[in-house]
Amino acid sequence: MKFSLALRLFTSLLAFAFSAKLAHGFFGANAGISHLTQSTYHAQVMDTEQTTVVMYYAPWCGYCQKMKPDFATASRKLKGIVKFAAVNCDEEKQVCAEAGVQGFPVVKGYYTNAKSKKRITIEYQGDRTAQSLVSFGQDRIPNFVKNIRSTPTAAGPSITLDKFYSLENSTLPKIVVVKPASRAQKPTSSLLKALAIDYHYRLLIGEATGASDDDAVYTDFGGKAPAPKAMPDVYAVIPGQAEAVKYTGEIKQKPLREFFDRFALKKKIRPSRKKGKAAKKVEEQKAKLGNVRDEL
What we know:
CATH class of the largest domain: Alpha Beta
CATH topology of the largest domain: Glutaredoxin
Distance between the termini: 59 Å
Number of strands: 10
Number of helices: 9
Keywords: Signal
InterPro entries: Thioredoxin-like_sf (IPR036249), Thioredoxin_CS (IPR017937), Thioredoxin_domain (IPR013766)
Protein name: Thioredoxin-like protein
Largest sheet: 5 strands, mixed
Number of domains: 2
GO molecular function, one term: protein-disulfide reductase activity
């Protein structure tokens, strides 16, 4: 009896290890690429706010084999910023059919529109190189980061610091990133945009510029604007707490996540896009009145 139980346990472990090997066989376990199946596809590709790049392939396809190392390299370069995944169309025929795949390889990007919150699909048409794939992924990251200015301008959508504090009735913890003047004209980084997605509904992230016309932004963080420098300052603003907490670590993904985790709300389930008829009617009426504003 004991031998039989041990044999069954060993067989189960062997089967699990074999299936894991098959799942990572095409790209390798260290590529950081999620292998999707019928049961995991929707949750990881459609029911998420993360930007996801998916390669639909067949193991026997020569073009897929040729593209494989570049896709894996792009995945490693954007680890934690853009999710890379793959579907084996020999095994997941229904998934590939529903995605409209008719040849191999096909690469598609999936991202969330920052305003409408709708999931957008776009087929990749660029060169099959790692750098082109990296650019494709970065360009599809929505920007949920609030643009903070001491005086809003017509240069783009922006809000004052007081307005930023008041969003979500001042109940949501805030992160304020103050860029140095030398980076005033640079767009929001891919890392910060990715963090704003991952912490959406848990933290609200805003970005201000330490340019001369925005020195007023610093009044809440020590008075005078600091001397120009290369890296931004990061502060956590906690509801009910008088002073902001300054981040003292490196501007890198892992330590920033650890800092954000100290103040973020517990992860919430993203609100369903499915709405009842009554709720939909109310929203339509609000839209007609021009009162719909999506603060987050």
